[in-house]
Amino acid sequence: MLKNSSVNIIGAGLAGCEAAYFLAQNKIHVNLFEMKSIKKTPAQKLNSLAELVCSNSLKSTEPLSASGLLKYELSQLNCFLLKVAKNNKVESGMALSVDREKFSNAVTEEIKNNKYINFIEKIVDDIDWSKPTIIATGPLCDDKLFKAISLKIGIDNCYFYDAIAPIVSVDSIDMSRAFWANRYDKGGNDYLNCWLNKKEYEIFVNELVNAKCATLHQFEKLKVFESCMPIEVLAKRGERSLRFGPMKPVGLSKHVSEEKPYAIVQLRKENLQATCLNMVGFQTNLLFSEQKRVFSLIPALKNAEFLRYGTMHRNSYINAPKCLNQYSQLKKFPNVFVAGQISGVEGYVESIASGLLCAINMLLYLKGEDLISFPRTTCIGALINYIAFSDDKNFQPMNANYGIIYCDKQIVDKNIKKQYIFDNSMNEIKKIKEKLNGKLI
């Protein structure tokens, strides 16, 4: 089948770009479709590809964290986007955060200048189901296309809401009520910490839970993914919920001489120059005017200039356990693979991993070779097995985490167990590289 084969990839986000680059490196011609120059989704701002919309952080690089393990696996597999991310990183302690515009521009340049990639600016409203295809539209898939996909595979719509955090100008922050530091002094002084005393915190929480939110369409039932919970929804769970969540004051007390912080808001660098900062964990659906009013109650942000307000939008995904197998291949259409957040993985790096997995198996499919199933003892394999074999009645998108990674030994000590999982994963990835025999260019 390989002779004169080409692959259609729908969507030039993280998963789509990773898949396109891998196939192009293996001299497979790709038609990469992207609609954002014609029609942007509510979350998109840039004209370039592989845009990071909610945050500029790709999470932890610590090898014994699930997110760190996933990055180590991808590094061993010569992941394209991970290399670009490292080349455009901004300091954020043990996390991999990037200058989102430079990252996106670098990806765009590589993709558009690749002779094996035919970049097509077009709104795709249906799939050519007869051709090798990777669906990588992301969670903000065009409505017409998502309906067409749903009708073809016979699956009802699934969706959840996602929220974006505000960005503020660093020059507008009152630095007398903020300090640069990482919790427990891990890494450099990469986060700006805006502290509140008990009274300030109580006033803030009271105003937050009573603030007005943007109106959602009445026909859309609110179903929020837990890790993207709007700050105002979390606050309504109890007065102390924020102090045990995004505003926890632990590991930073020694940096404040006047009094011990009762709560802290952390801001993360959005660009290399650190001229704009993202409010970590402050995804929100408040009206813009209410965001300005309520978030300005944080003493350091009393005169803050908001460069971007938080927003909330619908994220769409398919009911993967009903229609995908362990290769991220549609059961009804073996020539079609589904990558990224529309498949049910949640998170930037998870989407990249999904795109790479689909591209690897698409290449094997075109060559008529056996597809590769990553074992559950790896983070990549655990994610794909989760979305393929979960309870289809209660399926929810999933981030990388240790709860889904299989460990074949009973180990009580958590750190020893994580080290065992890491070592075992690296051995499994090595075996997969050997099977691929030079395809990881």
Order of helices and strands: EHEEHHEEHEEHEEEEHHEEHEEHEHHH
> Which residues sit in consecutive blocks of at least 5 with pLDDT less than 50?
none
Shape: globular
Number of domains: 2
Strand-pairing-aware structural class: alpha/beta
Provide the helix percentage: 25-40%
Computed over alpha carbons, the radius of gyration is 22 Å
Q: How is the main sheet built?
A: 6 strands, antiparallel
Separation of the first and last Cα atoms: 21 Å
The overall average pLDDT, rounded, is: 91
The strand count comes to 16
CATH superfamily of the largest domain: FAD/NAD(P)-binding domain
| CATH fold label of the largest domain | FAD/NAD(P)-binding domain
> Could you tell me the strand content as a percent range?
15-25%
How are strands sequenced across the largest beta sheet?
Answer: 10-11-12-13-9-14
CATH architecture term of the largest domain: 3-Layer(bba) Sandwich
Number of helices: 12
Question: In terms of topology, how is this protein built?
Answer:
Elements: E1 6-10, H1 14-25, E2 29-34, E3 57-60, H2 66-76, H3 80-87, E4 89-90, E5 95-98, H4 100-112, E6 117-121, E7 133-135, H5 143-153, E8 158-163, E9 167-169, E10 178-181, E11 191-196, H6 198-209, H7 231-235, E12 263-269, E13 276-279, H8 288-295, E14 306-308, E15 312-317, H9 320-323, E16 336-338, H10 348-367, H11 379-389, H12 414-436
Helix pairs in contact: 1-10, 2-12
Describe this entry's structure for a reader.
The chain is of the alpha/beta class. The chain has two domains: 6-158 and 317-436, FAD/NAD(P)-binding domain (3-Layer(bba) Sandwich); 167-310, Beta Barrel (Elongation Factor Tu (Ef-tu), domain 3). The chain is built from twelve helices and 16 strands. The strands form four sheets. The chain has a six-stranded antiparallel β-sheet with strand order 10-11-12-13-9-14. A hairpin with a 6-residue loop joins strand 12 (263-269) and strand 13. Helix 1 runs parallel beside helix 10 and helix 2 (66-76) runs parallel beside helix 12 (414-436). The longest helix has 23 residues, at 414-436. The mean pLDDT is 91.
